[in-house]
Amino acid sequence: MAYFTAVLTPDGPGEGRTWQTIDVDLEAGSPDELGDALRGAVDDDSPVLAVLEREDEWFALVRTDGSLDVRVFVSDAVAAADSAYAPLFAELPTASENPGSPRDDDGDEGDDTDDEDDEGQDAARPEPVVAEDVWAGDPELVADLGCPAAVLLRLSGSGADPSAATVEVAELLGFADVLESLR
Known about the structure:
Blueprint (H helix, E strand, L loop, with lengths): L2 E8 L8 E3 L9 H9 L7 E8 L3 E8 L5 E4 L2 H4 L5 H4 L46 E2 L11 H9 L4 H12 L2 H7 L1
Antiparallel strand pairs: 1-2, 1-3, 3-4, 4-5, 5-6
Helix pairs in contact: 5-6
């Protein structure tokens, strides 16, 4: 399976900004190592965004803004753990460790322990099957640029094609044409 990578930076703030590609070798490494490479690619404190995809498995976004820490989001941390980029995702907080992650209807984070009240439920009614959240990192990393966390979470949980997911993100941020030209 193939990887697709692109590194972009906006040429200005706001809705009318355009994005330019940057030639950066995205070697596997720690977030700090990749952040240094991204920061070194621009002369100012502009945001730099790396888009990574593993065909049919996952997508990831890596962002740095000047001297700020690098931020990472990966749609499927389990699948990405077996990739060449595994060191980048190794220490990211998972969905269950992340404050504000989706919760089940009773307000807890999916604790499967049986409560005494559960024993009297109708045994004929099947329990709904809910896919476990497998994303990791910072779902807010591009919210200020126009892609809310809810969109990243939906795209990571939907089982969507990673390239379709990154195109949707790119459309919201305004670089879909640039991204498609790199494919």
